[in-house]
Amino acid sequence: MKKIFSVILCAITALCLCFTFAACGGQQNEQNGQTKYDVSIRVACSDGEVYEFPVGEDEKHITIPYDGVERTYWVKEYNLPDHPRYSDDWFSPSGEGANVFGRTMTYCPPGGLNQSYTGPVKEIGKYCVTIYADSTSDLWYFRSIYLFVTVE
Predict the structure, then answer these.
(1) Does 124 reside within a domain?
(2) pLDDT for 90-148, tens place per residue?
(3) Does any domain span residue 14?
(4) Is the pLDDT of residue 10 over 70?
(5) How is residue 121 annotated by DSSP?
(6) In terms of CB atoms within 10 Å, which end of the chain has fewer, N or C?
(7) Does residue 4 lie within any of the structural domains?
(8) Which residues have C-beta within 8 Å of that of residue 146, sequence separation ≥ 6?
(9) DSSP letter at 18?
(10) Residue 1: inside a domain, yes or no?
(11) Number of structural domains, the chain?
């Protein structure tokens, strides 16, 4: 009877230890055990404007009067606001490796249909610049943001 009681007590203790260690570490990447964080993104425009997308804000709408100026958009900086050491720092993306951002665009001319687009924002119409923080990152969780630009 004592032996059965000892075995049951050891099993319960082992389970409690497993649960304790499993709860440590915060947000863990299931594939390799690394911690990942939510990412804030700053998108820059060639006209000098910068649009900030903090965690929880996934889209912005802007209207620009037609002026014939070509505008391009890219990720200027990113931030990991929940990171214990770098929460106040903004970093420029490297453009290579696992921690990269992607960009796609669509354009809808007046009275037309949405179409994939790779050129600059210039002509009258509606554009959607989609920026995504790639899921291959070992620093952040996947995130996509949308900058809707209307040129009138």
Answers:
(1) yes
(2) 999 987 777 889 999 999 999 989 999 999 999 999 999 999 998 888 899 999 999 99
(3) no
(4) no
(5) B
(6) N
(7) no
(8) 58, 59, 60, 128, 129, 130
(9) H
(10) no
(11) 1
Tokens of 66: 């037609």
Rounded to an integer, what distance in angstroms lies between the CA atom of residue 77 and that of residue 39? 10
Amino acid at 141: Y
Vertex 130 angle, CA 127 and 131, to 5°: 145
Whole-angstrom CA distances from 101 to 52, 55, 73, 151 are: 15, 16, 12, 25
pLDDT digits (tens, 9 = 90+) for 72-95: 999 999 999 999 998 999 999 987
Domain enclosing residue 41, as ranges: 29-151
- From CA 105, how far away is CA 147, in angstroms rounded? 10
Q: Which of 106, 84, 88, 103 minimizes the C-alpha distance to 44?
A: 103
Q: Which two tokens stand for residue 10?
A: 């050891």
Looking at residue 84, its amino acid is: P
Place of tokens 């929880």: 56
- 0.85 exceeded by the pTM? no
| Structure confidence at residue 4 as a pLDDT band (50, 70, 90) | low
> Cα angle vertex 130, ends 129, 133, to 5°?
140
